[in-house]
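Supplementary Data S3. Sequence and structure tokens for construct A.
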Amino acid sequence: MNNQSKGVQNSGANIDVKDYLFKVLAYWKLFLVTIIIGLIVAKFMNGYLQKTFSLETVISVKEENNPLFSTGTNIAFNWGGSSDELETVKVILQSRSHNEIVVKRLNFYIQYFQDGKFRLEDKYGYTPFIVNLNTTKPQLLNKLINIEFTSDTTFKLSFDFNESGNNAIINYDTNTISSLPSSELNYSKDYKVGELIETPFFSFTIKQLAPFNAGEQFFIKFASFDGTVGANKGVSVSTITNAASMLRLRKDGVNKKRLEDYLNATVKVLDSVKQVQKIEYAVKTRAYIDTLFKDEEQKLIKLEKELGEYREKNNIFDLSTQGTEIFGEAISIEKEKQQILSYREYLNNLKSYIKSNNKYNRDNLVPATLQIEDLKIAELINNLVTKSSFRESLRNLVKDNHPDVIQISREIEIIKNNLLENISSLEQVNSNRLRKLNANLNKYQSQKRKLPKKEQGLITYQRDYELSEANYNYLKQKKYEAGTAIAANVSDVKIIDTAKDLGQGPNYPIPSFNYLVAIMLGGILPLFYIIIKEILDNKIHTAEEIQNNYSIPVLGVVGNNAGNNNLAVFERPKSSVAESFRALRSNIQFLFKDASNKDSKTLILTSSVSGEGKTMISINMATVFALSGKKTVLLGLDLRKPKIYDDFNLPNDIGIVNYLIKQKTLEEVITPTKIPNLDLILSGPIPPNPSELLLGNAADEMIEQLKKDYDYVIIDTPPVGLVSDALELFKHSDAVIYVVRQNYTERGMMRMIDDKYKNKEVANISYVLNDFSIKNKYGYGYGYGYGYGYGYGYGKYGYGYHENEESTSFMSRVFNIFKPKK
């Protein structure tokens, strides 16, 4: 395997990073344009997109009890630990009922707008007026009402009715929507500040907050109450730390003043609701005790009267020493027995209630006049009420098959079973105490019967009076506790940090982020374009590509001919293009079969398709040989598409075709040129059978004769990729130049001639890279370019040889704007 083949094999494994870097840098104009466009778009989007802000408030939620009450005092009932309290508060803050209170308190269904650059801007809190709405009257629903200030204290109110004649109205007190017909298309009227605006469609007054600017306009709209509540339910509630009972409330929106008011109001509503809930039991207890207290007071007065009458009637005012002792012991036992009986009845009712219900509240679990002495039962009731309340709050948000509801239902069931077990144990203890008390009472009853009848009656009256007085004093104490609990209520909600507008910037859009994205996309999108273009690119660009992928060697490169014709060497002998042809003249000596032979040398030039510049190379190679003092002849054997005549400003009437068909002699078709030592044989008229003419004996004889008459015979042949004529002419050559054009010749086009070279069917052949410009695509070096047209040969390259000529499309010309300039 030769070195060239090895180079072909190894080339795929090596990636020239520097080469790719220069390719990318060559598109710097495209990068610049896309980045500028991206920044313009980002600037527009930063101004166009609706800005959204975020405000937050921090609160502490912790059960706070008045130290005057113990955990066993039912009026100061403890509603659970901090963990359950936090979860309950989270549910409350996101519940519809809570947010309905907040929306109604803030009148958020009244919306304020002003025309902005791109949309109506929410101006809540920034208007020089507010609307005082009469919520008992219907209001026009979801209709923009224009308010235009006409002076410092007057304004014009106007709006358009629905074209259908039916207009929706809403009553906010009842939250009902109805329809009201209208015969007019619009409404417009002037009003003064503070004047009642009363129509069938609305009823409100305008309260001035700041001076009006004449001509300034605002819009108001009365929105749906339910829709407003739904739009404002999205308060984000999160726990700050597990160790502390603190919550962070956050809300996003387009108006910071609206966010500030809503967050602060929702905390105030929560605080008031929690306080009401906390003293609700105490309020109910005091109301219930007031009723019992009055009844017991009347009963005590009655018993006191009866006791007095009995004493006067029976002339007995004091008990004997023995009677006093018996009465004292018996009344103590009676009071204790009465408490145990009341407690036993409560436990029976509690057990029945727990078994027969699935929802539990404080009122049914703990009677207002009962003090729970058993701490375990009190704790279990606390947990049962808290869990049940939390589950009902969850059911307002999710279904019963939700994992959270299932989990808390299991916890409630466990608490119920534990509570029932403790009730049974306590019932057994109370039964034993009750038996002992009854036994003691029987003992004192026996002793009582030994006393005189009048003294026994006095003991009975005094017993009833003492029991009633004890109950009266107990109710009096409970009434005092309830009143103290209400008066000394301590809030569970503490505001750590209120929501406040501190000049926070929008959290969307973020201008710096958008500009960064614009720059990134401005760099990435062109990069993708370059990568895809490179992947789809199958053109030849450098001599290294030819060396790495083909076996035929590269003889040299020719730069761009910037002249008006192809006589580059003759007309601009000092140009870099002329110098490249002199280099080819020197290099081609090593290509000839016998360079030391002084005989005539024949050089054939061909290419894959038309348009690659072989005619230009032929003319200038002939010129450099002629200018070096060698007698040279240039033959235009491209009979199908002759070009040489045009560069020499000659007619193409007489040429090789005339000689081959015996119309002219060889001397008659040879034309001297203005270039010393250079003769020219044009192709002549285009024949119908060019292949037959070139393959005939006359063509062979002509070439043999020219070899005798000239030092160099330069033959411009048809492209081998289109016709086979050139291959047949190779037998006359001492060397063959195969022209490849940068950014034009496709890689696959050269495979055929390269295979013939490797199979030794063709020898003494080399590639010449034409129209070469290092700066063309790689961004460095000097600049060349060759302006031959596209559209010949294979497909789009077949112009002149096949009937499929195509012009460059408009889109191609547009995309060429972003190509690196040659």
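Construct B, processed identically:
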Amino acid sequence: MNEQQPSPEQPPATPVSGVDDGQGRRIGPRPLDRPAVDPSLAAEFGRPQGVDSAFAPRATTPATNGSIALAPPPPEALSMAFGRPDSAGDVVLQRAPGSLPYGSEPAVEPVFWQDSADRDPWRDPGAGAILGPPAGESEKDGDDEGKPAGSPGPLLSVPELLFGRRVKPVALATLAGVALLIGVGGGVAGWAIAQSGNPLTSSVTLSQVEPGKEQVPGSVADIVKRAQAAVVQIEVQVGNGGGLGSGVMIDSGGYILTNNHVVSAAASDPSATLRVVFADGTKTDAKIVGRDPKTDLAVIKVSVTNPTVIQLGKSSSLSVGDQVIAIGSPLGLSSSVTSGIVSAVNRPLQAAGEGGDPPVTYDAIQTDAAINHGNSGGALLDSTGALVGINSAILSPSDTGSIGIGFAIPIDFARRIAEGLIRDGQVKHADIGLNARSVSAVSTDGAQVQNVKQGGAAAKAGIAEGDVITKFAGRPIRTADELNVAIIERAIGETVPVEIVRQGRQMVLQVTTQSD
């Protein structure tokens, strides 16, 4: 039987991949079964017609006038280092010496490394790197000839060290810092040794303190610093007795607003002495300009130049919980400061007058800032430092002192009284000519009329005894004090509606106020 010969169009059989051929050479893989190529894909991605290799054909230089333009020959050193060997011929790619031309290699690839490749340090990634001396000897300075290796260099002088740029600035700065630290450490150690035998400091531990802080704008300290000079202490001397109170400078002409009960003793006795003491200790005599017993307000005057005047605020803008500051002279302690909050507003207050004066009536600001005897007539300031009230009274059991319930006259009301006293020496208030008492029933609370003055405003409006007033000028009335405050705050000659309950029937009457 005849032996079949392989077709010349088929490549020779290739040994199985990974099988040694006995000569230490790597064997190529088996040919793959390549399926037929889609003609459309071949047209799209195949080589152009006439190109049978991945490398472009070598271009030939056309002749010019029978001669070829050649580039100048390269330097001999470069030709020896990078040129092709003489045996390479016209091979396009650089081949190792003794290798076959491209395209004539055997089916089995040649060996890439020798048998001793595993011992070659250049191919062993774990081999240590050994650095040798430089290829050429470095030039030696004339000063260094004959000196053994590792000998120290020349010494530097101070000018060379500082100005010769022989040392880096960072090194100089580091050296200076180390010297400074050593000096400071030595000084501290010497001081500690010297103080160790001092009996005044060796047996005590001093508390740590923080550096002084600036006063924050709007703080209590800042407000007091600006307003304290406008609050004065008032001294009244009557015979062998006397009293103390406070006042507030409200006008640059020397006018001071205070309480009537502070100066009432001086007003009734011509021999009494009235004196004002400023925050800096300056004392000067004062005289009474006018008094208003019904509102417990008075104005006195001193002859001074360029006094510190308080800035007037608006008590109507106060709300419960707002911060307030009281300045005065409680129990004779001048320029004392206390702080707190607004406990209530529009608190009707009626108290007995001084020395036969009529009852005091006003709508008070209640505060928990500590107020004691001597604070009367002093300032109640808001958080901006503006005057919002004149401290006037306290509520305490058996008159023992402050328990956090103090009252001040609102500045909106006190300002109108002070202007009238400065202008006329006295003020008049609205009145309707009746007396009332507080009543409380299941159906209604209010002020019951006890008597009506003949020819008065209430009588002209038709108010009779027994009527219960529940609202005056739109303000609810629950007690007789609220009625008295509502009346005194109205202007003279003003007509206001008054709601009453008469025999179970509600009525609204128009009342025109008169002067008291």
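Confidence is low (pLDDT under 50) at residues 1-11, 13-17, 198-205. The domain at 430-515 is CATH 2.30.42.10 (Pdz3 Domain).
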